[in-house]
Specification:
This protein is mainly alpha-helical and 229 residues long. Helix content is 78%, strand content 0%.
């Protein structure tokens, strides 16, 4: 019981800063969603059932640009293929949850992955920690989307810097984890790929997707090579 209380306390303390950043990001999504004629119910429902900041913001941006639903769906699928790698990496740490593993898998995304990976390295498998962290992010995202959609055109996310809050906070969390050849190799590969693609075609909306698909392959290659060395 004492250990569970300590886990819950640790999860809340470590997730709170990022949950606040996620809320500002969600607020931006809610505002932008209303600008492409999403109703309050539609904007919030998408957050409840999709729970993916990247997928939701890309959807809103593409619909605003007149993209077809098929194009949006394909882009979102490609963009979120990284969650398959996240799931594989977190599988051992979530294994003790047994029948609840499938439910926890719904919360697999960038932010929970970063915190959970660090936690699992320190204490081993800890599905309770992951559940608390994901739950906080989920609630923060939904509430922020609701208030953002409620405010609608009354708030400009860029004017208040809300669009930068999440990337900056997330980057701060990532930096301490940049250790080991596979991780550093992935970062360097992503940097090079993104720069080359941006040089070849500035402003290409596929740059992030292509980089996200190719860079992790470099990390996997280095990881296998290190293990076999």
């Amino acid at each position: 019981m004492i250990q569970k209380k300590e886990t819950i306390k640790t999860a809340c303390m470590e997730a709170l800063p990022l949950a606040i950043a996620i809320a500002t990001y969600g607020l931006s999504y809610g505002v932008l969603a209303t600008q492409v004629k999403f109703s309050l119910l539609t904007a919030v429902s998408m957050s409840v059932f999709v729970f993916s900041g990247s997928a939701q913001l890309v959807t809103v941006a593409m619909l605003a640009g007149g993209a077809s639903l098929i194009s949006v769906l394909l882009t979102v699928i490609l963009l979120n293929l990284r969650n398959l790698l996240y799931g594989a990496a977190l599988a051992e740490g979530l294994a003790p949850a047994k029948k609840w593993t499938a439910l926890l898998a719904f919360g697999i995304s960038d932010e929970p992955f970063v915190l959970a990976t660090s936690r699992f390295k320190k204490v081993g498998p800890d599905p309770l920690y992951f559940a608390i962290v994901t739950g906080m992010f989920y609630i923060a995202w939904i509430l922020a989307a609701f208030f953002g959609a409620l405010i609608g055109n009354q708030l400009d996310p860029q004017k208040w810097g809300l669009d930068l809050a999440f990337p900056v906070t997330f980057a701060a969390l990532l930096v301490p984890g940049l250790k080991g050849k596979p991780v550093i190799g992935t970062v360097l590969a992503a940097t090079v790929i993104a720069m080359v693609l941006e040089y070849l075609k500035p402003g290409n909306e596929l740059t992030i997707i292509i980089t996200g698909l190719l860079a992790p392959l470099v990390g996997l290659y280095l990881h296998r090579r290190t293990n076999h060395a």
